Amino acid sequence: MNKKKVILIGLDSADWSVIRPLMELGMMPGFKKLVEGGVSGNIETLSPSFSPMLWTSIATGKTADKHGILGFVEPESDGTGIRPVSSTSRKCRAIWNILHNQGYKTNVVGWWPSHPAEPINGVMVSNQF
Fold it and tell me: Which residues of the chain have pLDDT under 70?
């Protein structure tokens, strides 16, 4: 079976008004080649614009109230303080979990929040090192 390959690249806080001129000046040739050979566009955001919440919405297709990642930190389970959000805080499957269950190989690098790395058919490098 010939499976098609897909690459999703996200740049946190990136702005096309900065990236496009850099590509045209030849300062981002690899990125320019990817853009010209694929699909690109602007993405609408949600409010508040907290990266872990937004990236988890992209990965799950769900809003924060459904996936459970509401910001950068969350309360400790024993109520003694706060901790960074983690992949174990997510209440639903991400695209890499769904693809894994369907037998597809996936590679995930630096996705908010992907620590601790989840076992998948492929490679996962968490956002914390």
Answer: 1
pLDDT tens digits along 81-101: 999 999 999 999 999 999 999
pLDDT at 85: 95
In a domain, 26, yes or no: yes
Distance CA 24, CA 32 (A): 8
**Residue 107, in any domain of the structure:** no
Q: Give the pLDDT score at 1.
A: 59
Residue 63 in any domain: the answer is no
The domain of 20 spans: 14-39
Query: Is residue 8 situated within a structural domain?
Result: no
Global pTM reads 0.85
